[in-house]
Structures are given as C-alpha cells and as structure tokens.
Amino acid sequence: MRARGVDTVLYTGVATNVCVLLTVSAGFDMEYKGYLVTDATGTFSDELQSAAELVMGSMTATLTTTDKAIATLESSRGAAASA
Fold it and tell me: What does the mean pLDDT of the chain come to?
C-alpha cells in the first residue's frame, strides 16, 4: 500500500473487539493513519463494541461514521479536482 502512496486506512468489519482490533493495531504499528468506521463494524454485544471503540479511539484510530467518511472523501476529491 505504501508503494502506491496510501497512508490512511478506513477500518470496517466484524468482531470489532478481536479481528478489527488486531488489524487496526497492526496498521498503527506500521504508522498508517487509521479511521475506525464505527457504524460499519460489529461484534457480539453493545458492551464489547463500546469497549473496542474506546480502546481503539483512545490510541490507535480516529472514530468516524460512514457518512462522515464519505463526506470527507468527496470533499477531498473536489479539492483535488480544483487544484
């Protein structure tokens, strides 16, 4: 990814407290800027989801939603097109 100029990752998936958490941690270790798309992740209970978001949001990824991520991507595309 880095060879293609990628420095930012949007994380989605299931088992937020296990699979997603480990993937976010690996990305953080590789110095990617990470965004956890909270409404595009899920796990076995609301409590586990909240705990996983708390852990990742406090250190390894910025928490966002699908709507916010799409809006940011669209505004970035518009800014690049007008440059």
Answer: 94
